[in-house]
Amino acid sequence: EGLKKNSEAEQKAKQNPFPVEVFPKPVQEIITATNESLKYPIDFIGASLLYAVSVATGNSHRLEIMQGWQENAVLYLAFVGRPGTIKSHPITFALKPIENRDALNFQKYQKEKQEFDTISNLSKKERIEQGFGEPVKPIWKQHLVSDFTPEGLTEVHKFNKRGIGVYVDELASWFKNFNRYNKGSEEQFWLSNWSGKPIRINRKGSEPNFIQLPFISVT
Fold it and tell me: How many Å apart are CA 8 and CA 60, to the nearest integer?
């Protein structure tokens, strides 16, 4: 029985040579189980889990290759397959815990925003009488972004210094958005982010933005 299972595993490995063995055992079991029960391609679910780990790690850890040379966990991934290949489902599965956290944070933001609006509509005298100070506008701390501009991304990143993830369903649509406002600027933005260089954005009519330690993973 054991030999038969080993043989089946070897056959699967030959069909899809994604290095499942590099993962911890519990993650290997998730990859195997979703492949068997949900037909997720091994490389797609394996890479999806890597992306989820990248976003979850963010700026919390960096690897020192040698003295003075550090690398972060940023990943740029593209899933390529023929129509009908199960591409989106593995990513959705892997990102579910992060999506749930974003949803909870959004609920918290909505509640705080409602309170902020209520206090903002009071006169200064009414605030004093009711024991309120100057209201502070709440923010939604999110981890995943799908529709964005570089300016919008840095605004989100400003409130989540740990790092964020970009999830675009179609690779072509991401490329089409490149340089739609300023020729060459968006390409430079993504190159700087990949290299971990500080991101500076200055636009007329808006506040400047500076992210000293950017972390934006893309899939």
Answer: 39
Query: Distance (Å, rounded) from C-alpha 166 to C-alpha 77?
Result: 10
Specify the pairing of strand 69-71 against strand 216-218.
unpaired
Using the structure block, give the residue that is written with the tokens 């679910």: 45
pLDDT at 206 over 80: no
> In the structure encoding, which two tokens stand for residue 161, read together?
């210094």
100's CB contacts (< 8 A; 6+ apart) are none
Q: How far does the chain reach from its first CA to its final CA, in angstroms?
A: 39
- What is the greatest pairwise CA distance in the chain? 80
Backbone angles phi, psi at 70, to 5 degrees: -120, 150
- Residue 125, both tokens: 């005298």
Q: What is the pLDDT of residues 117-157, one digit of tens each?
A: 999 998 888 888 888 888 889 999 999 998 788 888 888 99
> Mind listing the pLDDT tens digit for each residue in 67-91?
988 899 999 999 998 888 888 999 9
SS (H, E, C) 66-133: ECCEEECCCCECCCCCCCCCCCHHHHHHHHHHHHHHHHHHHHHHHHHHHHHHHHHCCCHHHHHHCCCC
Report the C-alpha gap between 199 and 210 in whole angstroms. Answer: 6
Residues in Cβ contact with 37 at an 8 Å cutoff, skipping those fewer than 6 apart? none
Amino acid at 166: V
Give me 204's structure tokens: 């007329």
